[in-house]
Amino acid sequence: MAMLTVTNPLIQAYILHSALLALKLIAISSMTGFTRLSRRVFANPEDVKKFRGVVKFDDPVIERTRRAQMNDLENIPAFWILGAFYVTTGPGLGWTTVLFRMFTVCRFIHTFVHVLPVIPQPSRAIAYGIPYLINWYMGLSSCIILY
C-alpha cells in the first residue's frame, strides 16, 4: 500500500496528467459555450430569449467544437480509470510517464485539429489513435498483471 501515496512519482505523474486533462475538458466546454454565444446559435429556446439568437442544431462551427468535446468525454474518463488501475500494477516510471505524456499531448492536439479544420487528415486520426491504443494497452496490462 505504500506505493499508493502522493510521494510516489507514478502517482504524481498520474495526478498531473489527470489534472491537465480535466482542465482541458473544462476549457473545451467553455469553448463550446463561447462559440454558441459569439455566433448567437443556441440549442434551447430560453437561451434565444435571453441572448437574442436562434435555435439551430446544425451550425458547422459549433458542431465541430461539440464533437471535439464529446470525443473528450468518451476518451478521457477511460484514461482516468485505466490509468489508475495501471499505476497499481507497479509499471516502470519512465515508460509510464511517456504513456501519460503521449496521451495528454495527443488529446490536446486532437482538439486543435478537430476545432481548426485547416489542419488536414490524418492528423486528427493519429491524434485520436495514439491515446486510444494507450488506453487499450493500460487496460489490458492491468488485467493481465492483476489476473
TrEMBL record:
Which keywords accompany this UniProt record? Acetylation, Endoplasmic reticulum, Membrane, Mitochondrion, Mitochondrion outer membrane, Transferase, Transmembrane, Transmembrane helix
Provide any one GO MF term from the record.
Answer: glutathione transferase activity
Among Gene3D superfamilies, the record links this protein to: Membrane associated eicosanoid/glutathione metabolism-like domain (1.20.120.550)
What is the protein's membrane topology class? Multi-pass membrane protein
Its recorded name reads Microsomal glutathione S-transferase 1
Q: Where in or outside the cell?
A: Endoplasmic reticulum membrane; Mitochondrion outer membrane
Is this entry keyworded Secreted?
no
Tell me which GO cellular component terms the UniProt record holds.
endoplasmic reticulum membrane; mitochondrial outer membrane
Which Pfam family, any one of them, does this sequence belong to? Answer: MAPEG
Q: Which family does it belong to?
A: Belongs to the MAPEG family.
Uppermost EC category: transferase
Function according to Swiss-Prot or TrEMBL: Conjugation of reduced glutathione to a wide number of exogenous and endogenous hydrophobic electrophiles.
Sequence intervals crossing the membrane: 12-34, 76-95, 125-146
Q: Which reaction does it catalyse?
A: RX + glutathione = an S-substituted glutathione + a halide anion + H(+)
| Protein EC | 2.5.1.18
Q: What is the annotated quaternary arrangement, including any partners?
A: Homotrimer; The trimer binds only one molecule of glutathione.
Record lineage = Eukaryota, Metazoa, Ecdysozoa, Arthropoda, Hexapoda
Coiled coil regions in record: none
